[in-house]
Design a protein that fits this description.
- This protein is α+β, with helices and mostly antiparallel strands.
- The protein has 14 helices and ten strands.
- It is globular.
- Bound molecules: flavin-adenine dinucleotide.
């Protein structure tokens, strides 16, 4: 038996260091980040990023040949739970989405020239990137319906299309655009990924969309915003193509598996912070003569939250272990399960903590109202929950067959009939004894 839930002491030390660093150096940023421009934020980050590099924790998601630490998904999972406690932490560790996923795409599918020009500067933190796939006019849940076209003309692709929710699109130096290169191919072979420098003529960043996370449209050009982008006769050389023509979905699949579990681990970081607030509040707030901690409903919330978070944690770590041991595709079902389960736990724990704080929880004097708004995106990104549930159910059902005669396998009258036949002699003997 090789099941082992222990953490190597050296890595535990790294985790302890990360926990303290994020709490002491990153959390304080949260309350002032909105007042800083992106340029000022970059300057605040610079020494923090240097410190992370000195500790050998920079870009840990990539292999050592690419300047990463080659941690593997299990260690990354544990690390992301700590980084997830603050939206500002991943950027200090060189593994913020979408740059982390984009660097994986470039590592996986990029040519040597593409790696030289885009990947290494991205890893060094000198460039920013965005992943531009979702379109307002068609369902993101069914990307085979994408309309953005890339037509080959001589040595160039000419791209026309309309995208939105390209995270970091307004601060990106380059965009990885998913575009249809062959509309007549089989649905999952129609689209390709193409690198488009953000300053290419014809690329228009229309706006950063106001969202539940950042309700007031107008904070243009900041980390974590989501851009609407028009591509109008955008010309890029054919060597901007990533991988083979038509391999867009294949590359996306490789990228999304690990990316999704990193999200889930970060959500656990958010949940555990809300959980700490839930527990703390229960101890000092009194109603009808006793602390809230003594009300059974509150005890249920605390116990249920702890159990659900632990279940989600084990699910993620198990999926991570499966990716490390058997590869991404072996863990597809596990990743889908953890995605919708983690999103629910995230919501539920924050909701309970907010409720326990009453009016204070609803106010912006506590981070809970922001966390609650933030949590809502988890049910949509990286595939809507419903799509993941559908995938999981479909795969599970492959192992089942409908009974040919329409009678359920477990139907008791029939099972009894069979048992009576099988044990007839024994039953007869038992009756004879009576
Ligand atoms: C915060 C945030 C960041 C994002 N970042 C990026 C990014 O960087 N790059 C990018 O390209 N995109 C990004 N997206 C877009 C995201 O990937 C899409 O929103 C998502 O894929 C859903 O697509 P849609 O919005 O078009 O919704 P739709 O596909 O229209 O789906 C709407 C709803 O329909 C239902 N539904 C859909 N399919 C099914 C089904 N099979 N069964 C049952 N119900 C179903 C679900 O309830 C779903 O929520 C981001 C989105 C958010 C919210």
């Amino acid at each position: 038996m090789a099941w082992d839930f222990s953490t190597e002491p050296e890595f535990q030390e790294q985790l302890d260091w990360m926990r303290q660093f994020v709490r002491e150096e990153i959390w304080p940023l949260e309350t002032i980040a909105d007042e800083l421009s992106q340029d000022q934020l970059d300057r605040v980050y610079a020494p923090l990023q240097e410190e992370v590099k000195r500790r050998g924790l920079w870009a840990a998601h990539l292999s050592p040949e690419l300047g990463g630490q080659g941690f593997g998904q299990l260690k990354l999972g544990m690390m992301h739970e700590i980084l997830g406690t603050s939206a500002y932490a991943p950027n200090a560790f060189g593994n913020a989405a979408p740059d982390s996923g984009n660097s994986e795409i470039l590592a996986l599918a990029g040519t040597d020239e593409q790696k030289e020009r885009w990947l290494y500067p991205l890893l060094a933190g000198d460039l920013k990137s965005a992943f531009s796939m979702t379109e307002p006019e068609v369902a993101g849940s069914d990307p085979t319906t994408l309309r953005t076209r890339a037509v080959r003309e001589g040595d160039e692709y000419v791209i026309n299309g309309h995208k939105w929710f390209s995270t970091n699109g307004s601060i990106a130096d380059f965009l990885i655009v998913m575009a249809v290169t062959d509309p007549d191919a089989r649905p999952h072979q129609r689209a390709s990924m193409i690198i488009v420098p953000a300053d290419t003529p014809g690329v228009t960043i229309v706006r950063d969309i106001g969202t539940m996370e950042h309700p007031i449209e107008g904070s243009f050009g900041k980390l974590g915003n989501h851009a609407e982008i028009r591509y109008e006769d955008v010309r890029v050389p054919v060597d901007s193509l990533l991988g083979d023509e038509g391999s867009g979905f294949l590359i996306a699949q490789h990228r999304l598996g690990p990316g999704r579990i990193h999200h889930c681990m970060r959500w656990l970081g958010v949940s555990s912070r809300a959980f700490d607030m839930l527990c703390e509040r229960s101890l000092y707030r009194e109603a009808r003569g006793t602390p809230l901690a003594e009300k059974q409903t509150v005890q249920n919330w605390i116990a249920d939250s702890a159990a659900e978070m632990q279940a989600a944690r084990l699910m993620v770590l198990h999926a991570a272990w499966k990716i490390d041991t058997f590869g991404s595709s072996a863990a597809r079902n596990d990743v889908s399960m953890v995605k919708f389960f983690g999103a629910k736990i995230l919501h539920d724990v924050i909701d309970r903590a907010l409720q326990l704080h009453g009016g204070l929880g609803f106010s912006s004097d506590m981070p809970l109202e922001f966390m609650y708004r933030f949590a809502r995106h988890a049910r949509l990104v990286d595939g809507a929950d419903e799509v993941h549930r559908e995938v999981v159910a479909r795969r599970i059902l492959k192992d089942y067959r409908a009974p040919e005669d329409g009678v359920p396998t477990e139907y008791i009258p029939r099972r009894r009939e069979e048992s009576v036949r099988r044990f007839a002699a024994m039953l007869e003997a038992a009756t004879a004894n009576d």
